[in-house]
Amino acid sequence: MSAPTATLDPRSAPPELARWLAAAAAQVDHQLERWLVVPADDPGRLWEAMRYAALGPGKRLRPALVYAACEAAGGARAQADALAAAIEMLHAYTLVHDDLPAMDDDDLRRGRPTVHVVFGEAIAILAGDGLLTQAFAAAGSIGAGAGAAVTVLAQRAGAGELLAGQAIDLTTTRTTTPTLAELERLHAAKTGALFAAACQLGAIAAGAEPARVAQLGRYGECVGIAFQHADDRDDGEFPELAGAARDRTHALCAEAAQLVAGLPASATLAAFAAWIAARA
Questions:
Q1: Alpha carbon 4 to chain centroid distance?
Q2: C-alpha distances in angstroms, 136 versus 49, 72, 109?
Q3: pTM
Q4: How far apart are the first and last CA of the chain?
């Protein structure tokens, strides 16, 4: 299968936001290097497969949101390093498993062979498992706030949200176009859940109170659903819903901007929402 069209490539962002996203990507890649060191004894090239999945080409938008939410909640970007690595490892795990023959059966991702093509299906399954558990290890390493961070990851990536969305995707046979509400349920459970988790983790890294964590989580859900609407448009999916989805994207991005208005350092989050809205 061919590689999907990249939606909202960071290089297409307004210059100041593009520079910020590039710096955040470099910062999280440095952290991923620390969390994914290949040992001398690497049975089945398991750790190598994990690195291949997590450190390959990608937009790194989820860890960027961890950093931006941490700053918006009054923290310093470095406070969010471990949680930025955690969300990207968790995201990479979902992609490894999504690409498997039993799931989406993709041979290419971002222009290169998928993990199961390079390392074999069994090692790909284990690599996904390894990335998931390493994500929890990173979340559990932060000291104060570790319990809250682990809970966020478990809830957002579990059977109530992310996995539920994947199950809906796998088991729904579509003979007609879904309603916008049905489509948003899927988007909220998948992309929305991880974008929300990213923003919650950033707030936790900054030591924010639960109400601020929830506020930033809702911001993440809004921009995550809006992002997925943009992805659908770029992939040519659900053209019958294009107009309604465009209107909904503008509404979600407006809500997101309102949620972060007045926070101490929210310019990046506001610019991120505006960037998505401009692509609607």
A1: 16
A2: 18, 24, 25
A3: 0.95
A4: 27
